[in-house]
Structures are given as C-alpha cells and as structure tokens.
Design a protein that fits this description.
single chain; 163 residues; alpha+beta; CBS-domain; 3-stranded mixed β-sheet; 15% strand
Length: 163
C-alpha cells in the first residue's frame, strides 16, 4: 500500500492566522488552489482556510476585505494525516470528514505536506496503476468522492435573481 509521503506535495503553500485575507486570496488565485493550511510560528497546523470559507464570510460582513484577517475566516478544525499513513487512511479521513485535501503533519503537528484526492488519483495514473484496484471497500476513491460531493449537495444555491 502506498504511503502518503509518496503522494503528497512536500512544499505546500500555507498561511498564518494574522495574515491579511487579501494576501491569501491572491495566493490561492495565483496558485490555483482552493484551500491553505493555517500554521503558527512553529509551522504547527492550527486550522484550514478554504475558498468557501472566504465566500461565506465575505457574504456575511460589511467589513472591508483589506481589514479581514485569516483568523476571522479560517476553520480551527483541521483534519490531518501523517507521511507514514497509507492512502487508505487518508481516503477514510477524507470520506468521513467530507474534505478533499488534508494537511500532512509530523508527530508534533508541524506541516510537512498536503495530500488531495486529486493527488492520489493523479499519482496512480502517472505510475500506470489502477487506482480502483488499489483501494477496495469503504476506502475507495469513488466512495470518497461521493462523500465530498454529497457535502456540497446539501447547499441549495439559487442564482436566478442575481444580475
């Protein structure tokens, strides 16, 4: 079974809680990513900020964007895995917590990388391995993807009156 350290991005983008929200939006846009781990001065993961967190917060505040800090928007709950975990463990966390990306941390909680569902699939594809044969039972890619999609299905967006 493949270890997360074989599939993770080992130089992940990240941010700090007192960083401006504008700088995070710029970095996420420039890097084409939808979330960033939030770390403290010792690089310990203290939360996660997602593009959805940003949109929800911006829709519920009159505060100017340049005055908002990551701390005001981030989720302080970060689901993580370790470099030594196998991909099934990461898929189980993603499936049960309904997230598509996990910060990868060492035993002290310091950020070492990021692994995503897309990254797991891409790793197997690039190595000509059949991902659907690697992970069977509950911890397979389709169940994980369905769980994440089901999370998004709960929101009933109505864009009819937007001009």
């Amino acid at each position: 079974m493949k270890k997360i350290k074989e599939m993770m991005i080992d130089t992940p983008k990240h941010c700090e809680k007192n960083q401006s929200l504008q700088s995070v939006i710029t970095e996420m846009s420039k890097s084409n990513i939808g979330s960033l781990p939030v770390v403290d001065k010792d690089k310990k993961v203290i939360g996660v900020i997602t593009d959805r967190d940003i949109c929800v917060r911006l829709s519920n505040t009159n505060k100017p964007l340049n005055e908002l800090k990551v701390l005001e928007v981030m989720s302080s709950q970060a689901h993580t895995c370790t470099p030594e975990d196998d991909a099934s463990t990461a898929l189980k966390i993603m499936r049960t917590k309904k997230v598509g990306r996990l910060p990868v941390v060492d035993k002290d909680g310091r950020l070492k990388g990021v692994v995503s569902l897309n990254g797991i699939v891409r790793h197997h594809h690039e190595n000509n391995e059949k991902v659907e044969e690697q992970y069977t039972g509950e911890e397979n890619v389709m169940n994980t993807l369905h769980s994440i999609a089901d999370r998004n299905h709960r929101y009933n967006y109505n864009f009819e009156n937007i001009e």
